[in-house]
Amino acid sequence: MQSIELDGSYEVHDGQRSYSFYTELNNTYKFLITSNVLNYVQIVKARFETLRSEPSGTSEYIFTRFSFWGCLNFKDQPGFDLFSFGSETTAELSDRQGLYFSNLGLAMDFKLLADETTVDRGFIFDAGRASYDISQSQVRPDSLVNRFPMKVTSILQNDGSGRPKDLGYLSVRTPKDFKAASLSDEWYAINFELNLGSMGALAQKAGFSAGLLLAWSPSESIRTEVDIKLPGTGGGKKTLAIMGDGFAAGADQTTYNNYVRDQVMRGVFLSDAFNEDSASWNIRRVNLESANSGASTRTWNLMIDVIAQTGKYAPGTANLNDPSKFIVQGEKRYWLHIALDRDAGTVLGTQLEEVVE
Predict the structure, then answer these.
(1) Chain-centroid distance, C-alpha 57
(2) Which of 16-25, 129-138, 251-260 has the largest mean confidence?
(3) Distances (CA, A) of 328 to 14, 254, 281, 313
(4) Which of 12, 37, 66, 116 would be a feasible disulfide site paired with 106, CB 3.0-4.6 Å?
């Protein structure tokens, strides 16, 4: 069985015990893993240090941390290379390829007795202080990460808060050729920031990012899940958009706001079953300024649902009119409202609303 060798020192300062150990420069340690998700973990640097000690009578509680630098080499999943980071060669031949991490931790605490023996030793995986460097990582060419503007922000582990959907994430449908079971109570995930881009002149706000989770559970079978958290949404919630027609600018807008408050928010969602289910709804009030106050038989009010996408064509695409070759990298949604004079055929007014769900 392979182990990591550490060299260092043990010191006592003002009665406080302190340990500090490091691996030797240029020593690496590669651990092949029997897993459906990971090929191996390779450690290129390790450190062990004492965080603090707390006297307790004749005993002492010691709190320490192992810190690691290296690579996580993920398997290429059949039908969908979602974890992306790894090599195209076999795990045995691959070296220092995968997702590069630094300061990934393993906390260890124990009780040191008066006779210098230890009891109550415990370990906790600590990914909260780690960072990740895409520039030093190996991404497979046909993988998910290589096709989207994604940045690794953290690695998550289940802390008892439930599944990703309990953290506000929405499930993402994976390709039909990819077969995987659902997550168990023990799960880990690579957390990404997914840049959905901007829509140029149409957009009033530059930049639109979502959180994307690639999660897995240790298991004899493949248990993975892809989840997304979009700005302004809650996981699993329904969205209700309320739009007013026939309310002009000024006092009419106050009338409309009061109507939504009294008739919808209070009249509907404070009563009976809707009140019990109100936490499951995202409710959006859309203020539209009609050309005229009240209904008019001379005016047609049209709403055009616009979905604007940015992206690129797949390499080698010859026909730029083939939509199947277009790779979407960003998307925004807008409602374009147009008031038309039905007799004259003229445009009385327009309004563009960005839809944030």
Answers:
(1) 46
(2) 129-138
(3) 61, 40, 28, 9
(4) 66
